[in-house]
Amino acid sequence: MLLALLSGFALSQSYRTITAIVAQGLQADFGLSAQSLGAFAGLFGLSFGVAQLLMGITMDRYGLRRTVLASAPLSIAGAALSALAPSHGWLMAGQLLIGIGCSPAFLACTLFISRHFPGERFAFFSGLSMGMGGLGLMLTGTPLAWVVQHWGWRTGFGILAALNALSWLVILALVHEPVEPDIPPRSQESWGRSLRGLAELFTLPHTWGILVLGMSCYAAFLSLRGLWLGPLLINRFGFSLVDSGNVALVLSLISLFAPGIFGRLDPGPIRRRAWVANASLLMAAMFAVMAVLQHAGATVALMIGLGMLWGFYTLQYTDVRSSYPPEMTGRALSLFTMAMFLGVALMQSATGLVAAWATGLGVEPYRAVLLAIAGWLALASLAFRVLPASPLLRR
């Protein structure tokens, strides 16, 4: 059942990183600027993140299976609409539908693990699941780059729509929700009371540090892997589309294992926060170095290093689970996931504005983009350090 749910998560990973592969085609067909390209990529994260507000509550009320089966057809329709889009506006509408349709994909996997696997194995199974979701990143590496280069970007969206429909059928056939004696019955709270329960999280001081960093680390990696990797390597170093797809494929292969490795190395509640803070600061430094380097080999090596380091975000999920009492865990994970994808939307849109601003000043846009990401990460890492931690961790 977990593998079936992970098929949906893997496809959501493909959707959120396809822009790096289809960017050149979109710019050629619709004349998109760097700012418009950033807005297109960011719309997935925005719609995905906002929908998290409802998906966590819906899963509590109606179950994981019903929620996923009801929402996935939206992503199938969005991908089909994108493949047929006659204009930029229709393309944005497709992206909006895809984001909403994919929004419960990973949260469903996380809650399934939380409810049906031992608590002490949560970090390991979460990391393993995040790694397996990297299969979706592999699809938007060399395979989809080859398809797009030979048959165009519309074919890429068409393939994802077909795979999404197959995933829906697998979930329909295989997934049910076992009734366990230690799992409380689904909530029958009203929608208003459920939303007030989410709002209560903001009254807890330790929520803010978690959310600030949550909006930054995954957003930084996805802004690189899902938006700027292809244009940067093609325009700065003269890579072909398939060459840049090969780099994306290597990052995707690494992403299969990095989260699981960090899950296995989980040092426990107190030291875990230090690991997360240090890893995020190192990530900022690597983006800054990549901004000033004009060497193709070193840039690719830094990208691979970021792919290895990126796996620490599984420790962020584990930190969330340890920072709240059991009755708040579901809504806390939902809020954290929402923050992650709102961060993706904000960073991708903001870096599109930065690229357009830099181009207008005659500055290389990719240097400005990478420095902006580095500064964002450094400030978020500092905030995570100075804002209070959950008192539950000290127990």
Low-confidence stretches: none
Euclidean distance between termini CA atoms: 34 Å
Beta-strand content estimate: under 5%
Order of helices and strands: HHHHHHHHHHHHHHHHHH
Helical content class:
over 70%
Which structural class is indicated by helix and strand composition?
mainly alpha
Shape: globular
Using only C-alpha atoms, the radius of gyration works out to: 20 Å
Number of strands: 0
Largest sheet: none
- Oligomer state equals single chain
Descriptive key words:
83% helix, mainly alpha, 0% strand, 395 residues, single chain
Give an overview of the whole structure.
This protein has 395 residues and is an all-alpha fold. The chain has helices at residues 2-17, 19-30, 34-62, 64-84, 88-102, 105-116, 122-139, 142-151, 153-174, 191-201, 205-214, 217-237, 241-264, 269-292, 296-309, 313-323, 326-360, 365-386. α8 crosses α9, α14 runs antiparallel to α18 (365-386) and α16 (313-323) packs antiparallel against α17. The chain starts with a helix and ends in a 9-residue tail after the last helix. The relative contact order is 0.17.
Task: Describe the structure concisely.
The chain is an all-alpha fold and 395 residues long.
Detail the topology: elements first, then pairings.
Layout: H1 2-17, H2 19-30, H3 34-62, H4 64-84, H5 88-102, H6 105-116, H7 122-139, H8 142-151, H9 153-174, H10 191-201, H11 205-214, H12 217-237, H13 241-264, H14 269-292, H15 296-309, H16 313-323, H17 326-360, H18 365-386
Helix pairs in contact: 1-6, 1-7, 1-9, 2-12, 3-4, 3-5, 3-17, 4-5, 4-9, 6-7, 6-17, 7-13, 7-16, 8-9, 8-13, 11-17, 11-18, 12-13, 12-17, 12-18, 13-15, 14-15, 14-16, 14-18, 16-17, 17-18
